[in-house]
Amino acid sequence: MHKHIFEPFKFKRDRLLLLDQTKLPFEEVWLELFDSDMIIEAIQSLRVRGAPSIGICGAFALYLSIYNNNDILTDEKLLKKEADKIKNCRPTAINLSWGVDKVVKFVNNCINLNEIFDFVYSLYLQEIEINDKIALNGAKVLPSGNILTHCNTGSLAAPGVGTALGVIRKMFQMRKLNLVYVSETRPLLQGARLTVFELERDAIPYKLVIDGASGMLMRNSMVDAVIVGADRIAANGDTANKIGTFMHALAANYYNIPFFVAAPMSTIDFSIATGEDIPIEERDGSEVIKCMNSFTNKSDTSALNYAFDITPAKFIRAIITENGVYSPNEILTLFE
Ligand code: MRU
After folding, report:
1. Could you say which of 3.40.50.720, 3.40.50.10470, 3.40.50.1580, 3.10.450.350 is the CATH number of the domain covering 136-334?
2. Ligand 1 centroid to 50 CA: how many Å?
């Protein structure tokens, strides 16, 4: 385990200790969550967020449901009901269903509580290793220089080094990185608050920029590559990620700057043919008329708040996974 990596959750037999990401970077508040409803609230409020992180927390939520009510182990209907409740709490990231379904499958063959706990913990440890591999695979293929990234894809969003931010970390270690441009990621500022928090801790050079600045930076030849994470990748390589990703991809393509996606294989949803079919979370408009907790307009302002967008495969140079680096049109060939 890397010494500098930040761990935003700790698994106890009867609870989850969770660093509340909504309070960062101003306060480090740890929450104690004792049941699946508390974890669901934390996922929906983005106290924990990022596709792989919510996958692991979703898996742990189901473990806690079983810990609190052993009947779930022998009642298939109850197990499904509890699993569905957790899986449906955020719709876009496929990793949430992935984590919960892994536990359901395990429980079908094992009803020992300690072994279920160990299984969830092993999923977490596996994700750390997966992200190390993504980091290395990505750092080898990205060009040296200045990298632009969006949202937060680091240790807060995915176990260990993170996904896209793990690649950036590795590039820094390999002396391939000059500077990271971090786009703010309105409305909830995952880039400004969380990615900057992680880069500061690692002393990686960065500049925070507003989301709309990327076109100008690219026009001025200030960006050598863009790398982002993913919440769900369709079988044709179309990719859902934080709202604003598509605009960076458009600008990058216009200026012929390579645009990369870094994600574990579990983010690929082979059951979905194209990005058209990926469910996009729509969040409360009140998030758009606030910046942190201050209103930027009157409280009755009408706002539209899609949380994710789709970047078409044709704008993606390569998808970096733990198994290798693929062009989007190779994704379908990975189906087992
Ligand atoms: O709404 P969020 O903060 O959960 O959105 C997160 C993202 O869009 C990330 O880029 C994605 O989940 C990949 S995290 C490694």
Report:
1. 3.40.50.10470
2. 4
